[in-house]
Amino acid sequence: MRITTISTLVLAGSVLFTGALGASSVRNEPIQPIEPAEVTDPAKVQLGKKLFFEPRLSRSGFISCNSCHNLSRGGSDNLRTSIGHNWQEGPINSPTVLNSSLNLAQFWDGRAETLQEQAGGPIENPMEMAFTHELAVEVLASIPGYVELFVDVYGTDQIDIDMVTEAIAAFEETLVTPNSRFDYWLRGDDDVLTAEELAGYQLFKSSGCVACHNGPNAGGTSFQRMGVVEPYQTDNPAEGRVAVTGKDADRFSFKVPSLRNVELTYPYFHDGAADTLEEAVDIMGRLQLGRVYTEEETAQIVAFLKTLTGEQPRIQLPILPPSGPTTPRPQPFD
After folding, report:
1. Tens-digit pLDDT profile for residues 26-41
2. Which of the ends of the chain has fewer CB neighbours closer than 10 A, N or C?
3. Does pTM surpass 0.85?
4. Could you give the CA distance from residue 231 to residue 233 in angstroms, rounded to a whole number?
5. Residues designated catalytic
6. What CATH superfamily classification does 42-172 receive?
7. Is 163 annotated as a binding residue?
């Protein structure tokens, strides 16, 4: 019989838990490390990757999932609100797709419970990809290379939208960003963070930020009202969770965004009104916590937030199957 031991060590003001012999050690903190993705169906993930980058799922043949969730830009588009079909300006900021599998729900108002459900939304949204599920499936069925791929993954050439969205979700589940410098600190590396970054994290905790920004994703696990201490002033029409529940108490409640990779996913908030992390920290301090941070305190918190940037997914751009004779040709200015 193998005997394992459990021990605890106090490091840098937190408890470091050591599990079974040889296992990783993690500090007892409200934020936990992100774990690497485990791929159980690589063929489905590869199909989902092609579909994620596939502009022919849009009416124009020009817009793909990656258009608004650009994997070269932290899984977002760095616009206040995204641009959709016929250059329409969308109503809300595009959340990052990175680590989205760790969220309790998808979209700012949580109207999609799963990644698969979310994947189908933009395809048929008239302001985004402006297609229908039926037409999107017809386009894929007109492309011989996709038919072969669906046969390989699903065992049938009868493509349906559930297969499409399931494959996209399988790919998106791999888009996690482990091994940030903060994750290394959580696992016991005392030298990986600077004094300023550690001070920022302690302030982040003592101010109450961790009440909402906790767990592996440093957020994404609750809905909270925007403007607790002071009202949030915006001309953005989005009203948050009330659009899903119909309850007035949920008006202006939004899903708490993840702070992972937050230095890459500007601008901030559902309306994209904060251009910088400094501005976002100042607004959140005043409106949510009733706290006015000094310039030094803001710099410390921002320094900590930047330690949450993890390893970005290493994506080799997929070669998409060529269109068939009946596949509609792109018409981006139709």
Report:
1. 999 999 999 999 999 9
2. N
3. yes
4. 6
5. 128
6. Cytochrome c-like domain (1.10.760.10)
7. no
